[in-house]
Design goal:
Shape of chain A: globular
Distance between the termini of chain A: 27 Å
Oligomer: heterodimer
Strand content of chain B: over 45%
Number of helices of chain B: 1
Mean pLDDT of chain A: 89
Helix content of chain A: 40-55%
Mean pLDDT of chain B: 87
Largest interface: A-B, 55 and 47 residues
Structural class of chain A: alpha+beta
Helix content of chain B: under 10%
Distance between the termini of chain B: 97 Å
Chain lengths: 1031, 460
Amino acid sequence: MPQVETRSPRAAPRSGKVQPPSVLVLLVVRDGGQWLRQCLRALARQTHRRIGVLAVDNDSTDGSASLLESALGPERVLKSDRNLGFAGGVSRALQSDMARQADYVLFLHDDTALDQEAVAALVEAAERVEGVGVVGPKVVDWEEPRVLREVGLSTDRFGYPYSPLEEGEIDQGQYDRIREVLYVSSCAMLVSREVWNRIGPPDERLSPVQEDLDFCWRARLAGFRVLMTPTALARHREATVRGERPGSISARERYFRERSALASILKNYGLLSLIWILPLYLVQGIVRVGLLAASRRFQDAFQLVAAWGWNVAHLPRTLRLRIRAQAVRRVPDRSVRRSMAPTGIRLRRWGQTAALALLPRHAESAEPVPPGRRALRFARNHPVASAWALALLVAALAYRNLLGASALVGPGLVAFPRSPVDFFRELVSGLRHTGLGGTEAASPALGLLGLGSILTLVNPSLLAKVLLLGLPVVAGATCYRAVRANTEETLPAAVAGACYGLSNVVLWGISEGRIPALVFLAGMPWLVSKLTLPFDPGFGLPIRRWVVGAGVGLSVLASFYPGTVLAAAVIVAAAALTPLRGTRRGRGTALVALAVITATILVFPLAFSFVRDGGAGLSDHGGRASFAALARLWPGRGPGSWPTGFFFPLAAALALGLASRRSARPAFRAAIASVLSIYLAWMAAAGYLPAALSNPVAYLGVAAFGFALLLGLGLADLLRQVGLVSFGHRQVGVGAMALVIGVGLGGQALQAAQGSWAVGRSDRLTPAYGIVGDPTGSLYRVLWLGRADGDAFPTPGGVPDGTVEAGPASVRYAVRNSEGMSALDTGRPAVGPGYDALERALREILAGQTSHGGALLAPFGIRFVVAGPGDLPSQALQRLVLQLDLDPVPAGGLSIFQNSKAAPVDALIRDPDWRQAATNPSLLAVERLVKPDVRVLRQPDGRDAFLGPGAGASSLILLAQQFDPHWRLEGVSSPAPSTRAFGWAVGFAPTARTSAFEVRFHGQATRTIEIALLTALWMVGLWVTRRPSRG
Amino acid sequence: MAEERPASSPPPPGAGLRRRLVAVAAVVALIAVSGAVLDRGLGPRSAGAGVASGAATGAWFCPHGGSPGWSGWVVIGNPGTATVRVRLTELTAGKTPSVRLFSVGPLQQVYREVSAVDPSDATVVEYFGGWIGAAAVVASEQSGVGAGRCEPFPRRTWYLLDEPTGAGETSYVVVMNPFAEDAAFDLAARTETRTIAPGSLRPYVLPARSSVAFRLNDIALEGPGERTVSVTVVQRVGRVIAGGVSTTPRGLRLGAGAVLSNVTDIPAGAYAGSGELILANPGANRADLSVIGSGRTGQRVVSGPAGISLAPGEVRTMDLDGLTGAAVVQSDNRQPALAALRVAGPRGDQATVTGTPTPEPTWLVLPALTPKGGRSFLVLQNPGRSRLRITVQLLGPSGIVPAPRLSSISLPPGRTISVALPASSGPVTALVRAQGGTLVAGAASYPAGGGYAAMLGQPM
């Protein structure tokens, strides 16, 4: 803030006859009975000689009017029969003759008490400095006058208020100089007659907050200066903000502030400034609304939107006032902007808040210490900051090859669509456009991915990168929070977070590019903390809020990674099995059941699919059946092969042994969950669990957080006790833990820092895949085959859809278009009659029963069968080679077979044999098929419809997607009903020669209703779990 | 008086912690042991076999060739109990393939005439709904009859051992590509003394769904001291099937691909005449071979006490006198080799028979005859060490042909016998089943009108 040089008063004092300027105090009162007396008393003690008071009572109901009348006399009290607001009250008072005769008016709140020299000091400042129109006092706290409240105010370019004061800053004279400011508070504002004559009264629409900004801004535009003088002192109670006055605005303060800010911008900026300020304002406003909504502060978000609405509704009046304000303009905008706070003031504030959280102030020793010890001391005093610094260092090294990539590709990394709109389109569509299609409901995760894509500059590829690289860090952070909540210690929590973030299962997730699994791993600590809460004796949260909150969280995680449900089951089982007194098993189980029901309702279309398909969507076969690998949380691929990975279970076991009684409950729970999960992971990977329960990754996630929690609990207990007892087991334990964790974390960090990820730049795509590439991406499909484990296929094959058992020729498989696995598949299992038929065909091929595998795969639109190098069992490869109609294509790095018989995915087939085979359930009819005469059906942009040329009476219209009866053939004289072509696909067999036709989907209405219902349910869920407004 | 002790003394400091540490260590040890048991003892569940429909499909590829004035047939035998649908596709260089569809009833044998007027003529027999066997027979008024079994699948390398180009002899190598993608292969000829690899055939690109014939006489004429020409066809891109057809003054014969193996059993034929054994060693090491003759009365070593040693890449043709039934070629140093047997009929007509490395319990032996018929023999070789009880079922155009004397044949170990099939019922297919071991079965025929043909049966 610029400091103002003071100089001699304008007029030289005339000896003996100089009259000081007259000041009329415009006191606006509204139910101020509690503090009004002090205000009046302070006015009565003013040393300024020519002072008068005119009060406006805003329909007070607490006797304030009577008090005013008895103190000032009835003629000096203007009564209003309604609340005009402060600005309205001032405006009314300014219309009086008294106001017109006064040299200065002093706007005064009824909860402000002036120092006895205040008015004189304000007048003196106004008189001494040239061009001053408005002067404000130094404002201190009503009850604690040492605490500064205001020393002049400013805003950023968008009207966001700024004060140089820190919260609770003590007045030590540090602001004791006259300062030129953007505006001063209306709690005590001296205004020269010249000013209000020229710019008019305050804008009464803007009460109750920041009408002073607009008024002072206008004064500044008119060429007047606005000063704060420290020689004038005022105590301000801020009764309205504190909610001490009836009709408190504290709940809607954001609304009023935003409303005033935008109105001030619209009125006071010049046209040229508005051209760039308004778009920027709009962008930052949308971002703010988005962030508020994302953090479930819906009331705050609504207040912003409502403030914009108010300004739109009042735009005509605002424009009229703008014309008046601009008419008296004397100075350009840049002159006003000089008094504004820097643009990045908000970012700086957030940064300071974050820094305070990360680096809590500690008393530093004044004695000089060696750098090494100093670093250690810093690490101990600031574990979170140290963890962040190390995390950034490791991430910088680990991601060095990924950060600069334009787009990442990897084995399990899904292909993100080109536009966020595609996410939303798939979400609301009644059709599935991935895999073998059908009417499988899309996961609500697509909505979140769409929103995320918008936030990442409308760039879904960028979102993929942000998620892949950011989620491991988030996983560490959520683990830190969860462990800290259990231990109330930051150092153990930071160590546990680091261990979790660098655990093998997380590193595997990065390496394989498994974003849904990383979402699950990032949410895992939250899930454990949330679900185990009602099993504890001290659970005291509102039940409805807990149930809905847990349900919403569970549904979010499950919509990304359905296996979350299995993890939740293990967590609940572990909580219920904890053999300690006081465990509230009944309550816990009942509440978790309610949460699961809530989650089911929030994803009900998806839940129906899961139930219908026997829970097939819950499975994920990633993980090898090696107990030694799974015990160190290593699914078998990616970084994690080093034995240092054993540090985690080892440290957890040590921690369990060393944990105190105080940590017994969470420690037992974590131990049971971890051990149970490791065994379940092995059984799932080894194929001993039913398909619906086979998800080693989900179990490893539980085990990983269980280890982290144990480690945190044990470390916290040790650190608490180690200094209290004499040398013994605990001290040895601390040493052992430090050694194990140090070596383990170091090893894991080194492995990560090597950056040997399976994901990477586009060069991860095998050059041979160019043979398979289809520019349209949708004409034909690609069938990926590999040995029957759960590994992802080579890029871009993605994670397998299922397995086909055929003895030693057993394989895992996936059906993709040429772009590979799509993010639109998120949370959706590959199930249905089409997949059953495909598995049947594959079994036939792999069992060596047929030599016409190409014909069997032709109706699926499978043009290529692809396998990674060495990934296919030799028996399976042998049997593929024997297929007469699958021609091996020479390609380095991949085994590729081309199927010349494949029909396009959506085609008119002019071949009676195809028509006959489509209606014949026997495989033999299909095996006899030859390469058909086809016409590809054209799909109009964005529509679930296909256009075709004329079709003969013996032709077949085939949509190679899973059957749904809502497909209709239109544009023909005798529409044929859709049939289950080949037992699973959509087919039409025209009975007569037809001209051009259209095939349309008529089942969208059901999905639209579902989406509307889902939207409503999610809104209710989010509203119930909303966070309180911060004003 | 005993010292009085407090009723419950407090545990010493650290005792609880010690106990807990011991308990945790025990649990960790238990988990580690159980993990080891799971990994090494139990292991992953083995994948199920899966249930297939059981309705087999497959194909036979017959690169039989032909010449103007020749006739050709594909003979098909259905040993199953279900009617099998057949798609027969004829390939000829420069022509669009022609396709025929028909059915073969259960336990039936059918002949279908196919084009055999161009050296590149070849036929694909695809079957749906059950397994069938197929063989090709070509006949010429002047040259006699040639028969060869069809091939069930393409191979990476084809070895055609007996494609003579001596005086009055003409041989063609027929290469077919019935698949949807173009193929490229290298063709090289080899005699006892030299190797010829024409640049124009390295590689040769064969378009999809076509066949081609190479006149070997244009590539490698036999010189002095050379008794035959062997051909190697190595596929580079795509898939091909190769076969050979030769006309000599001593008859017409079809040559099928020989299989590289340590042991090759070649059922020679019914005529106890002379034979020539063609051996080749395509490997990189010397192959030491023994040849054992197998007949009605027993076995004897016919390669002499020193055996035969083939240098890498060597082809050798040797006379086998007094061969009565079958030849067994076995490698003494585990270096696989190739073998084919050229045998002569009673009137000097010749046939070339390739062998098999894998005896099987069940064989389908198709007739090496034209539909006109002739005398036909079933050659049964027992390479094992136990006596076999063999039943033979004959399949004719109308179904099973009664043959009571073939219902039970006993074959001692190491013996080879020839069984005459009834001539009255015309050409028949023999379904041979052995109990108590495995055997090798083939056919030898004297077609009506003259000639001699022999070929290996098809294992089931």
